Amino acid sequence: MSALVELTAAELAAGDELLFARIARDLRERGFTVCPKALPGSLAGVLQAHLAEMNAGRFTRAGVGRQEAHTLNDFVRTDEVCWINGESAAGRAWLDWAARLQRFLNRELLLGLFSFESHFAHYRPGDFYRKHLDAFRGEANRVLSLVVYLNPDWQLADGGELVLYHGDDTGSSLKVLPGLGTMALFLSEEFPHEVLPATRDRYSIAGWFRVNQSTGHRVDPPR
Ligand code: OGA
Ligand code: MN
């Protein structure tokens, strides 16, 4: 397992620059990017294998809001999540990849991204996450939202699309099928989005790059 993950890291470092450059260009030009086959195959494989081994009991019902504002709300979302903290080799390989992306974007776009938090999410058939924003203007903690999908052979008829709305009142939107390796990345304050119900189990990793909000009086917690 660890040999596989080491190989993955070496492979990734070589292949990622082109992808990262495309991501940076898209973010600069339009604030979002959607890339099929973005996740390197070896990393996708490691994450899929990890998901398959994971006990369903590790997932807990997702809430809405941070910390004290955190509530369960069946009307807004019904998925289950499992935070990724680097305990597993697969989790570490994922966090390494995200850290490389963070460094690249900080270098290219001077975003000052400071930390990254992410979780696996499991949507059972019929589960949804209604239209929402991941961050609110002025609170500026979550700057960039990243979602990658871990579902092999996903078909149009399976549903479960991520709908990304352009925050410009044109009402235009983009649907993303949650097929294995597809990635969506967008400015957290700018793009309302929702997850439509699927007819199959749907697995993703959702993550957020944040800037630091700590002040002399209050240390900003990681979640
Ligand atoms: C989220 C989210 C989208 C997806 O967790 O905030 O919007 O496609 N997830 O899983
Ligand atoms: Mn979201």
Give helix and strand order, one letter per element, not per position: HEHEEHEEEEEEEE
Assembly of the depicted chains: single chain
Question: What is the SS-derived class?
Answer: alpha+beta
Q: Give the cofactors and ligands.
A: N-oxalylglycine, manganese (II) ion
Instruction: Summarize model confidence as the mean pLDDT.
Output: 87
> Can you tell me the residue ranges where pLDDT is under 50 for at least 5 consecutive residues?
none
CATH topology: Jelly Rolls
The spatial strand order of the largest sheet comes to: 1-9-6-11-4-3-2
Total number of distinct structural domains: 1
How many individual β-strands? 11
CATH H-level superfamily title: q2cbj1_9rhob like domain
Describe the protein in words.
It is built from 3 helices and 11 strands; from the N terminus they run αβαββαββββββββ. It is an alpha+beta fold and 223 residues long. Strands 1-9-6-11-4-3-2 form a 7-stranded antiparallel beta sheet. It has a 4-stranded antiparallel beta sheet with strand order 5-10-7-8, with no helix packed on it. The mean pLDDT is 87. The structure holds N-oxalylglycine and manganese (II) ion. Manganese (II) ion is lined by residues 132, 134, 145, 193. N-oxalylglycine is lined by residues 121, 129, 134, 147, 162, 193, 195, 204, 206.
